[in-house]
């Protein structure tokens, strides 16, 4: 059975190239005939690993193609994911599997609720990739992919494809908690690096601010019934800050390159969840307000 990959950006290309070279059938779904023509002119996807470039002439099609979809890897940004799935929804077979690669939370739940006849699996990835140019992706950081079924279903047998393709993966029995923990880490680190215009390591100069955010994020996780995900959050935040001290966070890079951020699915999701639970988290709300102001001042979307 073919994998359809929706979103031939950084992570979508990284997954597609590795699956294709392992002999797993893959089809890319590109958003327009212009993009399809440009892709065909480039003769395929180029993946650069350890400085070595290889071209993968993976088949590509439009959302309007006639073939049915049974397994769809959704590799768009969180803010594009639902609309992108809507464009191929008429092709989804009953019981089709959607593998959702989005960071943060909110997009995955919206997709699962809108297409209840599908099985949605969520992924939390710490692999790193970026687009050097159209159809050229650099594999920038080895990591892990945690996959899980938020409904508690069993591991799919196609995890074997990921083994064959050398895509690191681990089945997570509580993927939603894992995504919440990553969201909390991102909320404690990323917005402050944007507002202070600093590398992760420089957050050491704002220790009290980070600690206070961690305390509210722990309250939020606990209020969501995620006691385990709340445990040791502050310590892990400082570990990540140390381990990535020289790096700029992904949100900082987005803002610097004038790209839309995924704030609505990180801090926005956290604040909306607190509001729904009637939980007062003034520092998190203040951070969200300051970040949105910062984005608006630069002409970037606030959600
Ligand atoms: P990206 O911007 O590089 O790629 C997204 C792709 O989706 C783009 O090529 C875009 O054109 C395409 N797209 C958007 N709408 C579409 C549509 N309607 N039809 C077809 N294609 C469409 O994004 P990315 O960096 O690969 O990130 C994807 C998700 O993975 C994000 O939620 C991100 O936070 C998460 N993530 C990324 C990395 C990374 O290193 N890049 C690491 C971990 C998690
Ligand atoms: O995931 C990250 C990001 O930059 O998005 C880290 C490195 C954990 C910082 O929050």
Automatic annotation (TrEMBL):
UniProt cross-references to Pfam families, sorted A to Z: ApbA (PF02558), ApbA_C (PF08546)
Start and end residues of each Ketopantoate reductase C-terminal domain: 174-293
GO BP term (any one): pantothenate biosynthetic process
Enzyme class: oxidoreductase
Entries under Gene3D superfamilies matching the protein: N-(1-d-carboxylethyl)-l-norvaline Dehydrogenase, domain 2 (1.10.1040.10), NAD(P)-binding Rossmann-like Domain (3.40.50.720)
Sequence ranges assigned to domain Ketopantoate reductase N-terminal in this UniProt record: 3-150
Enzyme Commission no: 1.1.1.169
Keywords: NADP, Oxidoreductase, Pantothenate biosynthesis
Record pathway: Cofactor biosynthesis; (R)-pantothenate biosynthesis; (R)-pantoate from 3-methyl-2-oxobutanoate: step 2/2
UniProt keyword Ribosomal protein, yes or no: no
Catalytic activity as recorded in UniProt: (R)-pantoate + NADP(+) = 2-dehydropantoate + NADPH + H(+)
GO MF annotations, alphabetized: 2-dehydropantoate 2-reductase activity; NADP binding
GO CC terms, sorted: cytoplasm
PANTHER family: 2-DEHYDROPANTOATE 2-REDUCTASE, 2-DEHYDROPANTOATE 2-REDUCTASE-RELATED
Main function: Catalyzes the NADPH-dependent reduction of ketopantoate into pantoic acid.
Family from the record: Belongs to the ketopantoate reductase family.
Name of the protein in question: 2-dehydropantoate 2-reductase
Natural source organism: Stutzerimonas nosocomialis
């Amino acid at each position: 059975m073919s994998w359809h990959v929706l979103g031939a950006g950084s992570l979508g290309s990284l997954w597609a190239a590795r699956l294709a070279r392992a002999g797993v059938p893959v089809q890319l779904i590109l958003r327009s005939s212009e993009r399809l023509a440009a892709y065909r002119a480039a003769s395929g996807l180029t993946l650069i690993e350890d400085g070595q470039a290889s071209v993968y002439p993976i088949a590509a099609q439009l959302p309007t193609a006639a073939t049915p979809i049974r397994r769809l890897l959704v590799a768009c940004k969180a803010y594009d994911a639902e609309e992108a799935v809507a464009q191929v929804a008429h092709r989804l077979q009953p019981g089709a599997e959607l593998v959702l690669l989005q960071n943060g939370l909110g997009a995955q739940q919206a997709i699962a609720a809108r297409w209840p006849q599908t099985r949605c699996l969520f992924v939390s990835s710490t692999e790193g990739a970026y687009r050097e140019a159209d159809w050229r992706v650099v594999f920038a950081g080895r990591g892990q992919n945690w996959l899980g079924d938020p409904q508690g279903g069993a591991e799919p047998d196609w995890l074997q494809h990921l083994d064959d393709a050398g895509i690191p993966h681990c089945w997570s029995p509580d993927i939603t908690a894992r995504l919440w923990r990553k969201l909390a880490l991102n909320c404690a680190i990323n917005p402050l690096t944007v507002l202070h215009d600093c590398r992760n390591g420089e957050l050491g100069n704002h220790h009290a601010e980070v600690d206070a955010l961690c305390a509210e994020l722990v309250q939020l996780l606990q209020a969501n019934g995620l006691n385990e995900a709340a445990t040791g959050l502050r310590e892990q935040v400082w570990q990540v800050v140390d381990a990535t001290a020289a790096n700029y966070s992904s949100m900082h890079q987005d803002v610097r390159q004038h790209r839309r951020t995924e704030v609505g699915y990180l801090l926005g999701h956290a604040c909306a969840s607190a509001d729904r639970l009637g939980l007062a988290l003034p520092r998190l709300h203040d951070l969200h307000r300051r970040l949105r102001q910062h984005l608006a001042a630069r002409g970037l979307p606030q959600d």
